[in-house]
Amino acid sequence: MGFGRTILIIAVIAVALIALSGTVSAAASASSDELTINVSSDVITIGDIVSIKGTVAGSDSKTIYIYLTGVDLPSKGTALVGDIRNGRLPYEQKYLSGPSWDYSWDTGLIIGGLEQGTYTIYVSTDDSGVDKLKEGTYVSKEVEIIDPSVATESSPGEILLVIGSLAGVFMLAKFYRRK
């Protein structure tokens, strides 16, 4: 067996191994759940309606779960609506055709409201809670949530018109006693 023939055999084996490893790698990634997430804005004002969209590969029929973590929320995550501080189950989104999912989050529908700060939105194919998610079964996106406010200045004597809606009423009275 000549030196040239040995090199040729080694080259053929190397090409076969490279081709085989590419096939195994493609098969492994096709069986895992590849998720994507896209949030309509990185800075959200309380009361905004936020579009959360994405894709999940690996199946045409999947259930995804959407969790929220952040200021004064359970570490395992919670739903994006209702009484979120008591650790409600995550929002469940089912879709039957195609890999795309879409959720409109009305940040005004949260009982007790949200505090201003940084929050993380998780999307997963696993419903066990953020603290138990495994790498590759979820994606996340950090968002900044701010209070709705308006700042303005006026000059003395200038008329300033403020129009809005009342969110609550506080009555403060000095020396009030109930009889």
Number of helices: 1
Mean residue pLDDT = 73
Strand content: 25-35%
How many beta-strand segments?
A: 8
Key attributes of the depicted protein:
single chain, 179 residues, alpha+beta, Immunoglobulin-like, 5-stranded mixed beta sheet, 3-stranded antiparallel beta sheet, 1 helix, 16% helix, transmembrane, membrane, transmembrane helix
Verbal overview:
The chain crosses the membrane at residues 159-176. Keywords: Membrane, Transmembrane, Transmembrane helix. With 179 residues, the chain is of the alpha+beta class. The protein has 2 domains: 1-31; 38-146, Immunoglobulin-like. Helix content is 16%, strand content 27%. The protein is built from 1 helix and 8 strands; from the N terminus they run H-E-E-E-E-E-E-E-E. It has a 5-stranded mixed sheet with strand order 2-8-7-4-5, with no helix packed on it. The protein has a 3-stranded antiparallel sheet with strand order 1-3-6, with no helix packed on it. The radius of gyration is 27 Å and the shape is elongated.
